[in-house]
Amino acid sequence: MGVGQDITLYREQERRLRQAQTMESVGQLTGGIAHDFNNILTVISANLELAVLGVDNAEEVPAIKELLSDATSAATDGAYLTSQLLSFASLQSFKLDSFNLQTLVSGIIRKASATFPSGIKCSVSIESDDITVMVDRVRLESSILNLLTNASAAIEKRGRISVLCQTKQFRKSEEAADHGVPVGEYIVISVSDDGCGISESLLDQIKDPFFTTKGVGEGTGLGLSMVDSFATKLGGGLRIQSTVGLGTIATILIPLVRSQAGTPVEKTNAQQRTSVPREAKTVLVVEDEARIRKITVRYLVAGGFRCIEAGGAAQALEILAAEAEGIDILFSDIRMPGDMTGRDLAAEVARLYPRIKTGLTTGYDQATRSPEMTGTDADTANIPVLRKPYSRKDLIELLAELGRSEPA
Ligand SMILES: Nc1ncnc2c1ncn2[C@@H]1O[C@H](COP(=O)(O)OP(=O)(O)OP(=O)(O)O)[C@@H](O)[C@H]1O
Ligand SMILES: [Mg+2]
User: Fold this and answer.
1) Domain regions of the chain by residue span
2) Which residue CA neighbors atom 10 of ligand 1 most closely?
């Protein structure tokens, strides 16, 4: 009896400990992603700010285009991070795609250097061949961004940051051990700065989660721990060499996975797809968040659709009651204030106006098969759901598909 109780108690303690550990890792992970997300937002806002500054000058148009496209691609990275946060399970896996190493590294440095104070000069040297590698682009870019942010913070007013990107083959185990990695071929990216440096007594701690020497609100101490865990999980590592007063060299090593020769770099599906001519269809766009509605309508109009807007399900039904004949497609957000969700609206529209095709959208994760995503009743279970944030291409493709499909 006594033994039985002991075991129960022990199991309960073990369960609590495990739960606490899980919570801690969820906390670290969430904090880490929030941290990277902030970096991404900084890139977006700095690039947008610069674009706004140049907007009155016609000569600046090519530069503005580049700033805007950098902001857009940073936003895409942000969307990828939130999708990871939402589908916790997918965190174990890396999203590998083929990229040209040179384009990738120089791209992130260009985006990031827009955020540096003007006294900081940044140079890049890429010594690898023009190779295509398989890599988790967003995580590699976040890692480089973290190192660049640290380097910039270490520089008081004026200074220099240099980035060196190479591929290296460690054939001998001593050589590999020197870098703290197994024998093999690696992408080696080092970020050097001539900032304050790190004292020897702190070098052991700087990769620990939440270790920071920065003031409250200035740093979370998660940057290096994110970089280290990413590189280490892949079988590489993060090495920091530093001398107080002289500067720091932070080096990421990632095992090199070459992509098959001839693989297209940064494949764009849009280029492969030939556009299908279509007569203009009218879409009823139902979305309570005005800025998202505005963007959606802009995308659709640019894609050759006509649009009518509604701020909620009730307004959408009023519009339909008045002019349902003129509307071909309903595109609605799922979660909206009010009694009716987008799914309820879709069911009602299917009942009242079976000719109208419906697409739904939500910011919640598709991987978690919640009733909201899958639908509970047979009426709305087959309606396609577009996850937010969606790209113009995904939106147009979905609605073009709906516009082509035969009425039920
Ligand atoms: N290049 C560098 N030069 C000098 N010190 C550095 C450098 N990189 C990191 N450090 C030191 O390591 C600590 C931990 O870095 P880490 O990136 O993990 O967090 P952080 O930069 O403090 O916070 P956050 O990344 O959230 O902004 C920093 O607070 C700083 O003291
Ligand atoms: Mg940092």
Assistant:
1) 21-255, 269-404
2) 150
Q: 269-404 domain in CATH 3.40.50.2300? A: yes
Q: Which atom in ligand 1 lies closest to the alpha carbon of residue 247?
A: 3
Over the chain (408 residues), the average pLDDT of each successive run of 10 is 65 66 64 75 84 83 87 83 58 70 91 89 87 87 93 95 94 87 92 97 90 83 87 90 97 87 38 44 92 84 90 95 94 91 95 95 62 58 85 90 77
**CB of 237 closer than 6 angstroms to any ligand 1 atom:** no
Q: Is 193 in the pocket of ligand 1 (CB under 6 A)?
A: yes
In the block, tokens 């590698």 appear at 133
Number of C-alpha atoms within 13 angstroms, CB side, residue 53? 8
Quote the ligand 1 centre to 208 CA distance (angstroms). Answer: 10
Please tell me the residue having the least CA distance from ligand 1 atom 24. Answer: 219
CATH superfamily of 21-255: Histidine kinase-like ATPase, C-terminal domain (3.30.565.10)
Contacts of 191 (CB under 8 A, 6+ apart): 144, 147, 148, 150, 151, 161, 162, 163, 249, 250, 251
Residue 371 is predicted with a pLDDT of 55
User: Could you tell me if the CB of 213 is within 6 A of ligand 1?
Assistant: yes
Is there a common fold for 21-255 and 269-404?
Answer: no
